[in-house]
Specification:
alpha/beta, Rossmann fold, 5 domains, five-stranded antiparallel sheet, five-stranded parallel sheet, 43% helix, disordered C terminus
């Protein structure tokens, strides 16, 4: 029984005679052990008792004497320590006969006692030493001793038969405390080593048995010495029944004997095992330069494939998570609500969705919402803008590539977007910009749900839900032979058309209020937000919004920035002035230029104009303006410099 390393050690004494039990009890007192004693047993009784003790008491070490110790050693699988007779024990036994006898016979089991000659010299007695291995041999040695002139015999409990055998008295040599102490010390040492070994073996077996791969090991004769539970399942065997049998009789198509002979590992070999494809590795066990066994591992090919699919690229999900649900779409328009309900229905399937609508209408918002409403919500949402990736790279980005596929390829290859989206959703935005050659490959992937990396040959299964989006007419693209008709029908399984903002102007107030709350400080009064929205509503409703919701968001974001910096300026006036920018069509009915360019550039220009106006107001006191704006002087300088370009023209010199 495996015990904790700080627990008391457990011993059992199999004592051939009673005095040994008394001595053992005396010496063991106070030692860190618990023990049981079984005494006055014949050899057969001792062997049976030892087996029963091991079964019932689980001792770590058994102790006994001479032939009894050797006899029970072959009957149990627990270490047995022999309480050996010492020269001191013999000297103590002979002391009463000094001067009375001249020659004695000393009988010792198996081996000579080295101290006998020294004892003979000390006592001035001739001592003939005889060894024996069994009862018959002992009795024969007794007859020899009688013939040689022995006057007394000394030895273990069997010397009691000497009078009967050869008419000479036999004296029992009992061990002393020092012999028992020495035996107990050896028992403690063995128990500590055995306990450490049992713990090491338990840890090793726990590790081996918990590994998902099958593991077997053989010895130098190719006999099985270890089979873990996974290997039992794969082989359809019981370890207890096949251990010790040649591996070739148990494992189909095994090459363990070849590896045992060659000493050369065989790694990642494909093997059929009962109709299951297995990836096998065979590694020789080398000891002192000699192969003494083989360790084999078995992995089911399907398990490896699944693990690869789960760990493809070993990428973090950060950046591949959808943020917006369908419920986050702000609308009061009945047509939009119907489209959202339809999107919920589409989310319940894995069919391809084609989102159509003008730029800025929120196609990606719908794509994310469909993903989050589907059973794939916990998996990756991978957005890809087909128009933003150079044509030469698009194929390798979508499908990945292997090492050395082309000049500049990463050494370890690269995982493509399809693999990153495995078990999740791949959103292909601007699908109309997909190069014609890549369209054919995309069609095959959608039909077979298998990819081959650029430069590779391995077919990799994928499980991906595809959502596409376009702001162009794919019908017109097909008419000009720029878009494959078969791909169009494969993509247009579940169509969803999102109306532009100009067709749902009742949503403008809702969106405006939402963007105002988003851009203004948290402590900005809600009543003022409502007042701002109502004040600027007439202006916003007259605009045609070619940029749709994205354009509205940009305008309101710049407006909130202006409101924050110039809280005393009328909101309507700020809206008109923030609408001004370089070179676009005028805002309807007001003659101001409509904003154009990226939000980043427009915001940068607006910040520069506001900062310059404040510098004029505070006589170019940069420190005071920076403090007023809550930024450092360095930040103020950077904002004025922008990207290093010249400062923009003074379009806001009339700001109050």
């Amino acid at each position: 029984m495996l015990q904790a390393t700080n627990a008391l050690f457990s011993f059992s004494l199999i004592a051939p005679y009673g005095n040994l039990a008394t001595l053992f009890t005396k010496v063991a007192a106070g030692m860190p052990c618990i023990y049981s004693i079984h005494e006055n047993l014949t050899l057969d009784e001792a062997s049976a008792a030892a087996r029963q003790v091991v079964k019932d008491e689980h001792p770590e070490v058994l102790l006994s004497r001479g032939g009894t110790a050797d006899y029970i050693r072959s009957s149990v699988n627990v270490p047995v320590v022999d309480i050996l007779t010492t020269g001191v024990d013999l000297l103590r036994a002979l002391q009463p006969f000094v001067g009375k006898i001249r020659r004695i016979a000393f009988f010792h089991y198996k081996n000579m006692l080295p101290e006998v000659d020294t004892v003979a010299v000390i006592l001035g007695i001739t001592i003939d030493q005889y060894t024996f291995l069994n009862r018959e041999e002992l009795f024969s040695r007794m007859v020899e001793a009688k013939a040689k002139g022995a006057e007394l015999g000394f030895g273990g409990r069997l010397v009691a038969y000497m009078r009967e055998i050869c008419e000479i008295d036999g004296i029992l040599v009992e061990v002393g405390e020092d012999a028992v102490q020495r035996a107990l010390n050896e028992a403690f040492s063995i128990a500590r080593i055995r306990r450490a070994e049992l713990f090491r073996r338990a840890r090793m077996l726990t590790i081996i048995n918990s590994i998902a791969e099958g593991i077997i090991a053989t010895d130098e004769t190719n006999a099985l010495t270890l089979i873990n539970p996974t290997a039992e399942r794969l082989l359809g065997v019981n370890a207890d029944e096949v251990l010790g049998i040649d591996a070739r009789e148990i494992v189909p198509n095994t090459r363990t004997a070849k590896v045992l002979e060659s000493g050369v590992p065989e790694l990642n070999d494909i093997q059929d095992m009962g109709g299951t494809t297995i990836v096998t590795s065979r590694v020789p066990i080398i000891l002192d330069g000699k192969t003494v066994g083989v360790v084999c591992t078995f992995s089911e090919a399907d398990r490896i494939r699944q693990a690869e699919q789960r760990l493809r690229g070993k990428f973090s999900r950060k950046g591949f998570q959808a943020k917006y649900a369908l419920e986050d779409i702000i609308t009061g328009d009945s047509a939009m609500r119907s489209i959202i309900e339809l999107a919920h229905m589409y989310a319940g399937t894995d069919a391809t969705v084609l989102l159509q609508g003008e730029s800025g209408t929120g196609k990606e918002l719908f794509a994310q919402g469909i993903h989050l409403a589907s059973h794939r919500a916990e998996k990756n949402f991978v957005p890809v803008n087909c128009a933003a990736i150079p044509e030469a790279l698009l194929e390798s980005e979508l499908f990945g590539y292997v090492e050395g596929a082309f000049t500049g390829a990463k050494r370890q290859g690269k995982v493509g977007y399809f693999e990153l989206a495995h078990e999740g959703t791949l959103f292909l935005d601007e699908i109309s910009e997909l190069p014609y050659p890549v369209q054919a490959r995309l069609l095959r992937v959608l039909q077979e749900m298998e990819i081959v990396r650029v430069g590779g040959v391995q077919v990799i299964p994928v499980d991906v839900r595809v959502i596409c989006a376009t702001n162009h007419s794919l019908s017109a693209q097909m008419a000009m032979n720029r878009f494959r008709r078969d791909l169009y029908y494969r993509l247009n399984v579940l169509p969803l058309t999102i109306p532009p903002l100009r067709e749902r102007k009742e949503d403008i107030p809702r969106l405006t209020a939402y963007f105002l709350r988003e851009g203004l400080p948290p402590d900005f009064p809600a009543a003022d937000i409502s007042a701002i929205e109502q004040d600027i509503r007439p202006f916003l409703r007259k605009h045609s919004w070619p940029g749709n919701v994205r354009e509205l968001r940009n305008i309101i974001e710049r407006l909130t920035l202006a409101i924050t910096m110039f809280p005393k300026t009328p909101w309507r006036e700020l809206l008109l002035r923030t609408w001004q920018a370089e070179g676009t069509a005028a805002m309807p009915g007001y003659g101001f230029a409509c904003a154009s360019g990226s939000l980043k550039n427009m915001t940068r220009h607006f910040e520069q104009k506001m900062i310059r106006r404040l510098l004029d107001q505070y006589n170019s006191n940069h420190a005071q303006v920076a403090k007023l704006l809550g930024i450092s002087r360095m930040s103020l300088w950077r904002k004025l410099r922008g990207n290093g370009d010249e400062a923009p023209d003074d379009a806001f010199t009339d700001l109050p």
